[in-house]
Design a protein that fits this description.
The protein has 435 residues and is α+β, with helices and mostly antiparallel strands. It folds into two domains: 123 residues, 2-Layer Sandwich (Phosphorylase Kinase, domain 1); 298 residues, Aminoglycoside 3'-phosphotransferase, Chain: A, domain 2, CATH 3.90.1200. It has 16 helices and twelve strands. The strands form four sheets. The chain has a five-stranded antiparallel β-sheet, with helices on both faces. Helix 11 packs across helix 13. The N terminus is likely disordered. Bound molecules: 5-S-methyl-5-thio-alpha-D-ribofuranose and magnesium ion (MG).
């Protein structure tokens, strides 16, 4: 292992230890800015570990005047245990991403107050009023600001870190800065792009109802080609600094504010992976919604909002991205001197539309991949998991798999975001054989 990687919180270095309450209290008390933000004596601070994600510890610390959130990486995958080691350096990449995203999309990520690479620790402002968006959507809550905020986040972080906005030298420095985050990329490469399509010990699904679909997906060569093309793009398209895990569990919301959290999977990858993640998770929220109904039709307004939000995410993202391209194109791609005069401007504008059509196609494909992994792979989500009756859950999941397969294999049928929402509406009315 290189000396650079060892310095990024290698647990064999003596400074790393898993922090427990007393230890964390003593550690935080050493930093006057943190202590004064919390207020009161360290002994009076309340500390609770609240992490419910797949990988890390998360502590909420509250004093007499304020609170903070402390995230510490564990040297293994929390969801699975010590048998699956994972580099602590992900905390370093999370810090790098958070600080870069804060510059590119101000106000849309939590403020970092402190970090310590050796302890694999990031201290952030406490988002006390916000909840994890996925939880809010399971409860059927509507978030009126979401489209506006998430599309600003996506357009700005993706455009402003791409070759359209930065010099080739700056872009390559960026790629290099995140290149060491390959263990986290490998998780995605395996869990999203490979395992759901093969027999893998960690896969699970709602059996027995989805057994036949899982088996069919393992034999479906059209699907295997499509997912492999997407995997190749994930491996070899460093288009922009992407969040890398932008599901609705990585977004915290109130009715008036949106914050994107948890960018530990960040690296330079394909833009459509982030946009697709947002759309996939909205589609799953839509198709899981009937499973949370206590009376038929009671979530209709919420479901209409979700579909409108899916359309808004793509159309507003595309509008903002193109606007940035027209005014902030300071990168080395598409040199201005090659597109001079009226004819040049018109041709460049046409080329922008071609670019967006290609990005839309990537978005649809990645979105489908993100849906399939949550139903047939290792890590599931509460949109489906909280539907108590397993057969009812399986109906929602089967519809989602049917939609996702079409989005991945029949990609030519999805020319616009309206085609996606239309297909989602249609599949909502489909009943699988077992239902
Ligand atoms: C083993 S980690 C499983 C999943 O959790 C994270 O949130 C990512 O989505 C990852 O794929
Ligand atoms: Mg996460």
């Amino acid at each position: 292992m290189s000396s650079q990687r060892r310095s990024l919180a290698d647990p064999r270095q003596s400074e790393y230890r898993i922090l427990h309450e007393a230890d964390l209290r003593d550690y935080l008390a050493k930093f006057p800015e943190i202590a004064s933000r919390l207020g009161g004596s360290p002994a009076s601070w309340s500390i609770s570990e609240v992490g419910d994600g797949n990988l890390n510890l998360v502590f909420i610390v509250k004093g007499t005047t304020g609170g903070i959130a402390v995230k510490q990486a564990l040297p293994y995958v929390r969801l699975v245990g010590e048998s699956w080691p994972l580099p602590l350096s992900r905390s370093h990449y999370e810090y790098l991403a958070l600080t870069h995203q804060a510059q590119l999309a101000p106000g849309l990520v939590p403020a970092v107050l402190h970090h310590n690479d050796a302890l694999a620790l990031v201290v952030m402002e406490l988002l006390e009023l916000h909840i994890i968006m996925r939880k809010g959507m399971v409860a059927g809550t509507i978030y009126p600001r979401f489209v506006q905020d998430i599309t600003t986040f996506l357009a700005r972080t993706l455009f402003l870190s791409s070759d359209l906005a930065v010099s080739a030298a700056e872009k390559k420095e960026g790629i290099a800065a995140f290149a060491g985050n390959h263990a986290l990329c490998k998780i995605t490469e395996d869990l999203i792009f490979t395992d759901p399509y093969r027999v893998a010990e960690q896969n699970r699904w709602t059996a027995p109802w989805l057994d036949a679909t899982a088996a069919a997906f393992r034999e479906d060569l059209d699907l295997h080609v499509a997912i492999s093309r997407l995997k190749l793009k994930f491996l070899n398209a460093p288009e922009a600094l992407i969040h890398g895990d932008l599901h609705t569990g990585s977004i915290m919301v109130t009715e008036n504010e949106t914050k994107v959290i948890d960018p530990e999977f960040a690296f330079y990858g394909p833009m459509g992976f982030d946009i697709g993640a947002v759309i996939a998770n909205l589609l799953m929220a839509y198709l899981a919604s009937s499973g949370h109904e206590r009376a038929p039709g009671e979530r209709r307004a919420f479901e209409a909002w979700v579909l409108g939000t899916i359309e808004g995410v793509w159309t507003e993202f595309a509008r903002k991205f193109l606007e940035l391209w027209r005014i902030e194109a300071k990168g080395d791609a598409y040199p201005v001197m090659l597109f001079e005069g009226e004819a040049g401007a018109a041709r460049l504008e046409a080329e922008r539309q071609v670019y967006m059509a290609r990005l839309f196609e990537d978005t649809v494909g990645f979105s489908a991949a993100k849906i399939i992994r949550r139903i047939l792979g290792l890590a599931h989500n509460i949109d489906f998991e909280l539907i108590e009756d397993p057969k009812r859950r399986a109906v929602c999941e089967a519809r989602s798999l049917r939609l996702a397969r079409a989005m991945m294999v029949d990609v030519a049928l999805f020319r616009s975001i309206g085609d996606v929402t239309k297909a989602a509406r249609k599949v909502r009315g489909w009943r699988p054989d077992f239902a």
